[in-house]
Amino acid sequence: MACARVPLDEQQVTEPGPLGKERTLPALHPERAEDRCFVPYKPPPEEASPAEVEEFLERAKFITEDLEWLLALPHDKFWCQVVFDESLQRCLDSYLHHAPRGLDLAALPSSPAVADTQRSVHKAVFLTFLRMATHKESKERFITPAVFGEIIYENFLFDIPKILDLCVLFGKGNSQLLHKMIENVFTQQPSYYSDLDETVPTVLQVFDTILDKCGLQCEGAAAMEPMKLNAHKQPTAMTMSQQDLADLIAYLCDSTTTIHAFLDIFPAACSSFYSHGFISRLTSFYETAVPDLEKAVRKRNFDHKSLQDDLWKRLSHSCRKMVEMTHLLLHHTCLQPILEGRENMQTSSEELLQHFTSFLPEKRFLSDYDEQFPIADDISLLQQALPVIDETRTSYLLQGVESAWDSVGRRKPQIQSKTSSSLLSNQGAVGGATAAAASGGFKAPEVREPEGAEGAVCPVSGAELESLLSCIRDLLPDLGEGFLLACLQEYDYNSELVINNILEDRLAPNLDKLDRAMPRPVKEELPSVLNNRSNVFDDDEFDVFRRDQVDMSRIWKGRRKGESAKELLNDKQHIEDQRARYQAYETVVDEVIIEPGDSSSAAYDLDDYDDEYDDTYDMNQVGANDLDGDTLLNRRPFTIPQVLRKGKVEEEEEGEEEDQFVQDPALLRERAEARRAAMQQRKGIRPERPSNVAGRPKGQGQTLETFLDRRKKEANKSRVSNHNRRTMADRKRNKGMIPS
Q1: 429-469 pLDDT, tens digit each
Q2: CB 258 within 8 A of CB 167
Q3: What CA–CA distance (Å, rounded) separates 352 from 375?
Q4: Taking Cα atoms as reference points, which of 319, 378, 374 lies closest to residue 351?
Q5: Residue 148 in contact with residue 95, Cβ under 8 Å?
Q6: Containing H/E element for 273?
Q7: Residue 60: which residues within 8 A CB-CB, separation 6 or more?
Q8: Which of 7, 321, 399, 544 is geometrically suited to a Cys-Cys bond with 144, CB 3.0 to 4.6 A?
Q9: How far is it, in rounded angstroms, from Cα 63 to Cα 60?
């Protein structure tokens, strides 16, 4: 048997051979592996037919039993099976490839048996990888670290794609265990760092592929190559088929979610992505591709509304993950050295400001980034850590952020962000202002803040809220969505904190009183706009919103069928409609005899008109309103007749202004000039400088303005009068019009 305190790679075991004779073999030997066939994994069926569900349940049961048998093996037997059993590796690889991701869980069947079985397989696979990443289980059961690194690397037990899948599948709720597992793998085998450096260009190629599929210009040498004349036109997001668009968005969502999960769980990988210029490529891709894809999802007509909603949810989730990836890279490469007070604080702050400056042309990305992670908080942190930061530069950046919000046509939400004190606390994988990063919204631009469980404003988008709920319900399916919404709202939409407090039974008192099976509250529908509208055509014969039946014979498109000009002219229906009206005018009464006392004669009891009556003085009272004699004399002063005057009397009009029937031309010119100046000032026209051709007296020199005015006069004098008559005379003579 194996000796104590000896690593597994150095142990020798004695076992009976095929013929019954004992033999000594290394502890890690192919003949010690059990002959067991592990079946590959297949995902749950989307169409819940009984046969497919039964097949999935049976296959998943086999996988769970086999993995539980594997986990129960001793240390040496476990590693023999892991290293030398190829069917086991195919089974684990198939689960990593085909297991449903976070946004795929909503499309799975709602059968409790399927959910329980899927959860059992999920747990068994995670525990298997966790044990495979542990080189020391106890003081007696361990492998030499160098040999362990060689085993997992040479036998491809772990590689970069597997690690990425592990992060996206098991990251929610197991981030700490997963971080220790991946850190141990990279620590014991540093070759994985070089593999990661070679993987980053392949990840960047994902963005170029998506841009190429959308018919957009991508960076690099391929972007500079001219297109051939006979080349086929690349389809765009608006012209490609619905299936291609759905596959493209699903590809983008899966890629961004996987990369974000890896960087979030293993921050040491941020330096590799940062060194390859990942931030600049990511922001450029975001600014180029996201508006085009959003427009296609909003404007295109889909066969099913559910498909459009699912694509919008995946695209919004992708946008949020790209923004969070950028912040993760900036935090762990630029902000973290400043928070820890390292020697390269000045260099890190300069790089951070350079990145913020490079974001300024990317208006859409900058506004979305600032919405989740306010740049003002990071600048405030820099100013506190390094007071020598140029204030002109920081104010320029803040003005650029405000300009980005204005250019995209959105208003900056007034959400109280975390201050620099939160950054110093370094909570979580992102720390600082990232605690407010659960906010963010890539829902429709009109509605960016869905309502939570109790009608309160929720800081996360609708797609992210559904993702959080599906993640928690995957682990705790017996809880109602209404209860989970209340828990998320209580713990600032931190799913890991909610799961931890539920499992440890440390919920807040107000949550303990709630029913754990409480369903999700039904959102009240807003009243229809048609009920509140007001229109001049309301309640008419064609108001289809208030009438169930409309005379369709009076509605046609274009010219009425069967109608001709002859039939239109022969239609005399309007004459029949007016006949009864004009028949009332046929009765003419010349004289009506009124009997005394006849009550029916009141209609004819009118005052007779007497043409001989003189009504001249009826309304004009002669003399009644005349003034007294003295008052009559005061109406105009007494004037002596001219023939009775004895001396030359000065004219009464002396001293009065003469009646200027013809106004002064100088005054008219002055008023016209004032009006012209006012008009030119309103229109922004600069007044023309007065010409000065005369200049100074001879011998005193002339100014530049005088030379310019004289040149202008000399060049333009031929336009008026007859200054060019000699030239025209020569022209006529040359043409033979004037005899010489």
Answers
A1: 333 333 333 333 333 333 333 343 344 456 777 777 888 88
A2: yes
A3: 11
A4: 378
A5: no
A6: helix 270-275
A7: 41, 117, 118, 120, 121
A8: 7
A9: 5
Name the residue type at position 392. Answer: T
Longest dimension (CA), the chain: 176
Burial label for 514, CB within 10 Å (0-12, 13-18, 19+), is middle
186 Cβ contact partners less than 8 Å away, ≥ 6 residues apart? 192, 193, 266, 268
- Asked if residues 162 and 137 have their Cβ atoms less than 8 Å apart, the reply is no
Distances from the Cα of 94 to the Cαs of 40, 51, 100, 151, 533, in angstroms? 6, 22, 12, 21, 58
Kindly state the tokens that stand for 599.
Answer: 């009550």
Length of the chain: 740
Q: Is residue 14 within a helix (H) or strand (E), and if so which, with residue range?
A: strand 12-16
pLDDT of residue 268: 93
Tokens of residue 493, six digits:
């939409």
Stated as kind and residue range, the H or E segment containing 16 is strand 12-16
443-451: long-range pairs with CB below 8 Å, 24+: 443/312, 443/316, 444/298, 444/312, 445/409, 445/410, 448/413, 449/413, 451/523
pLDDT tens readout for residues 466-517: 888 888 887 787 888 888 888 888 888 888 888 888 887 788 888 888 888 8
What is residue 474's three-state secondary structure?
A: helix
Beta bridge partners of 23: 15
Contact 457, 438 (CB under 8 A): no
Report the percentage of the chain scoring pLDDT > 90. 31
Q: Is residue 267 pLDDT above 50, yes or no?
A: yes
pTM here? 0.57
**Tokens 């509304």 map to which residue?**
305
**How is residue 328 written in tokens?**
């993760």
